[in-house]
Every structure is written in C-alpha cells, then in structure tokens.
Fold each of these.
Amino acid sequence: MRILLFSLALACLGFAVHWIVWRVRIPVRQTRAMLGIFTAVAVAAAALGAAGRGPLPAWWPANGWEWLHAMTFYAAAMLGYVVIYTALEERSPSMTLLSFVARDPVRGSSRADLESVLGGASPVEVRLDALIRDRMVDDSDGVCTLTEKGRRWAATFEGLRRLLGFPAGG
C-alpha cells in the first residue's frame, strides 16, 4: 500500500509541475514536454532516495524491488495520462458534438445545430497540422511526405499492427 501511495504522490507531483508549466506557457511540442517533465520528476525522486541524506518518509521505497514496482506503476499512470491528454488536446468531432448536446441535455439539439457546430472544422486538417508541428510530416508545396521521425513511428505502428494481427488500413 505504501508503494501505491508513493507512486500516486509522485504522479500528483508530476501533474502539478505539468500544470504549472502550462500556466506559464504551453510548449509547442506538448507530448515531448510532458514526457520530459514526468521523467524528470521520477529521476529527481530516485536521486533523492539514492542520496539517502536524512530520514525519508515511511512510505518511501526502501529497496530496488520496491523502486521497480513504484516506477512501473508511475510510468504506466503517466503514459496513460499522456495518451488521454493527446486525445483531449485536439477535440474530435464526436467529442465536440457530445459536449454541445450536453449543454442542454433535457431539450437536446437539432440536427442543423449539430451540423453548424462542426461547420468548416476538418478533423483531417487538424491532425495533419499536428503531424507537421511535431515534425512527423513535411508539407512542401502541398505534397506531404514522412520525415525520418514519421517513418520510425509508422514502422513502429505497422509492426505492432502486424504483431497483433490487425488488418491493414487506418
């Protein structure tokens, strides 16, 4: 139980640092910044534990095995948060419609109102802009090509898709 509490405290600290940084200035490459913050929090905690100066709280991991458990949970929780964040970072058309209908769940919304909410919003354009911003796709004169980083990610996902037996396609 104490390892769970330690991991949750570390996750809360990582989230707090992330929140503070975003209040000062939202980074251009948000996913990379979050991964850097969460990694730095874990490294700082490990360095503090390794320094061993003074008494540490009772809920602090006492040995390597406990550190492995704590860091495994912390990494899973933080990666889960990063995935959720990236899904919320750019609102999907479905989430936009659900949020709009939720504003007045009793009365509801007409089909025309729902169609007007998405007027002009292209989910493909939003995602393509994010891929260009993250330097995974290069857009030169209207022709999109994968960068080296984009090729590595595509190969990773294609390999995972084949490993899991999913059919080709999007």
Amino acid sequence: GRILEKSDSEFLYYEGMEDETHRVKITMPDGSEWFDSKDLGYFDENGFVFVTGRSSRVLIRSDFKLSMDMIENKIKSNPAVKECAIITQNYVILNDEYKNIGIEKLIDEIQNSNAKLSDVEMPIAFNIVEELPYLSSGKIDYQKVLKLHK
C-alpha cells in the first residue's frame, strides 16, 4: 500500500511549491496530518517497512492499478535480464550470455518462470537495448527512457 508518515519532526512545506505541499499533506478523519511519501510498500511480520516502488510509477490497465516497479522486479528476476525499465513498453538490457536470446524467447523464459507476468502486467512491447540512461544517483532516468520511446 501507500506509505504515509507521521513523526515528531513534522514536514512543514516545499519552498515555493504550495500546490505540491497540499498534495503531500493528508488529513485523516481524526484531524491528524500525515505526509504522503509517494512510496509504495508493506510491513513484514516483524514490523519492518519495505519500499517496493513509487506511487507515481503506477499504470492503470483494465481497471487494475499496476506497479511498474513490481513488474520490473519480476522481469529482472529472470537470469537473462541484467536491467529493465518500463514506461508502457519494456526496455531491457540482457546479460552477456543471453545477448542472442531474442524477444520471443525472452518472453517465453519470463512466462515459464516463477515470476510469470499476468495478462494485465505484460508490457505492450519488449525492446532489447544496449544501455539505459541513469541519473547521477545510479537510478534509471525514466524521463530519458520516455524519450527512447518516442
């Protein structure tokens, strides 16, 4: 689910971004204010929080809300896949030993694994690429991936 935060060190505002400040402050029915981290995640049985993705990376297809991060994780669990980035299409970098696998064989490999994609999770297209754009933080630059798509 969506991760909301509340602590003694209260978030006040984003400087010069009043609309965004209002979007991230959630008021509950009891009047308490919470900060919407825009992260998705879950608690394990020991109470630890695990972040599984960003709410901004949610795709709505056939009335289902799909986490693109979760779909990427399923695809990356396949030994053929080194890295992937999903926008609506999927861009994958293959591990060296799988460079000649081809898209159809890759999809078959994924669909015959423990991390099979459901019909609604399946990207509309797979694209094998040599590299993906990264931010200085080491994370995929999805804005630049969008430009690959155009």
Amino acid sequence: LMSTFVSIAAHDLKNPLAALKGGVYVLERLAIPDPGPETLATMSQSIQLATRLIQNYLEFARLDGDEEIRLVTRRVDLQKLVDRELALLGARLSSEEFARFDFQTQIDPGLAVEADEGRLEQILANLVDNAVKYSPNGGRIQVRAERRPSGVALEVVDSGVGISPEEQADLFGRFTRLP
C-alpha cells in the first residue's frame, strides 16, 4: 500500500517540479534580465500545485491514521475557481499539449457555493486532469456549473471514451487508477 502511495505521489509531483526546473533554467542559463510575466506565472502556479499535492499527501497520512478531515467552508466563486484550475492546468502541460484541447466554460454568472475551497479545487483538478488524460487530441473539455432546484451542479464533460460499467465498480477504490 505504501509503495503504491509513494509511486502516485512521485508521479504527481513530477509535472510542477519540471515546470519549475524549466523556469529556473531560463532564468539562469539564458541570463534573461527580465524573465517576463509568463515565466514567473508558470513558476508560481507550479509552486501552488506542488504545495497543494504535498498538503493532500500529508492529509492522506492523517486519514490513514484514522484522523478526521476538518472542512473549512466559505463562499467560493465558481468562475474564479474554474479559471484558476485551468491556469494551473496550463502550467502543468506544455503549451502545445494545452493547445490541443478546446477548453470551454459555461458557468452561471455570479454563481457561488458554500464549500471547502481546497476540497473543491482538488475534486475539480482531478476531473479536469482525467478529462485531459482520457480525451483524444483536439478533444473538447467543458467545465459547466449551473443552479438547479436541488443545489448547484458542477460538471466536467469531455470527448473521451468514458468508463465501462465494469471499471465504474472499482472507481472509488483506494489508489485505483483505471487504464
């Protein structure tokens, strides 16, 4: 169990650290006096992602020790949350990879929810990452949020093949990764 966890953690941390390494290379090797806002933004977003991943792994360790998760809820603007997650995704992927997809957002104006922002970010990041991973090149990925009679629906819709009924049964298993 621990070796699986460490493998997943190492894999997840590779992307933000690679972006940081690239940014540092640009700053050091090319002797650019002003690295530009894009390079600094990518590095900052990569630091945010790596920090979030480390916090998630530490929390998992606490959960594995039977500690409870403490949720801190506040008003979360869904448009800002989605915009931030797509910017972080852009930092994780190369510009060529990011450009292969048609990202669309459809969010009711001013839509906000009472939620634990960190948890909601984590869920959205996982859904968007999976949409990228399992959608064909050039696929459309939509992030939609709308008010419904029962509450608010936040959806990530992609042009991938979907999950077979057999795999759906295993979807929420601990450390489960589907092919």
